[in-house]
Amino acid sequence: MNTYTALLATALLSFSCIGSAETPDASEAPRYQGEHLVLPTSYREWIYLTSGFDMSYSAAAMPGHHMFDNVFVAPSAYRAFLATGTWPDKTLLVLEARGAKDKGSINKHGNFQGEEVMGREVHVKDESRGGWSFFQFDDKGVGSRVPQTEACYSCHQSHAAVDTTFVQFYPTLLPIARDKGTLSSSYEP
After folding, report:
1. Is the predicted pLDDT of residue 36 greater than 50, yes or no?
2. What mean pLDDT do residues 53-59 have?
3. Which regions of the chain does DSSP assign to beta strands (E)?
4. Which residues contact 52 (CB under 8 A, 6 or more apart)?
């Protein structure tokens, strides 16, 4: 292979990588049944962003009840965020809630996640359907859109670090958003 061919191959490879990082793969795009969002069956194989423990938007705690929240994002949307510091259209962020347990096997102190999934929510960016939306899922994996009048929309608009998403709780992505200059003006560290 001559030098020109090698440079051309490198340029094409770089271009194809950049292009794939900016647009989610079709297999990772939102799928709908009418107005309902279908839960991606492979989301547990996606990029893990973070876990929260007993996080709440209100000061009131739920005594005697502890919960882990795990957040996953499609790999192509993750790569796009790494490249740009923001989420591309068709991004899906899956939040999976599991009850916390403190007794089991050899555990003597602390908490671990239980097997039962207590709930699932998806934050989806779909410009063809009005931008960012929240969906709550039933046991059959079909999500109903949360009405725009619910507080989650205004809370995310007012407090999210990047593009109505709580990147401030994603320790590997917050520095990227800071470096790319994509932090929201309303975000307060």
Report:
1. yes
2. 74
3. 32-33, 36-38, 47-53, 67-73, 92-101, 112-126, 131-137, 142-145
4. 68, 69, 71, 169
pLDDT over 70 (residue 146)? yes
The tokens 């994509």 sit on which residue?
182
Judge whether residue 96 has pLDDT over 50.
Answer: yes
Residue of 117, 130, 123, 121 lying closest to 160 (CA atoms): 123
96, two tokens? 């999976």
Rounded distance between C-alpha atoms, residue 83 and residue 165, angstroms = 17
Beta pairing class for 47-53 and 92-101? unpaired
- Phi and psi of 156, rounded to 5°? -65, -40
Arithmetic mean of pLDDT, 125-139: 95
Give every CB contact of residue 75 below 8 A, 6+ residues apart in sequence: 25, 28, 46, 47
pLDDT score of 11 more than 50: no
User: Could you tell me if 125 and 65 are in contact, meaning their C-beta atoms sit under 8 angstroms apart?
Assistant: no
C-alpha span between 173 and 86 (Å, rounded): 10
pTM: 0.80
**Region 20-48 average pLDDT:** 84
CB 111 within 8 A of CB 122: no
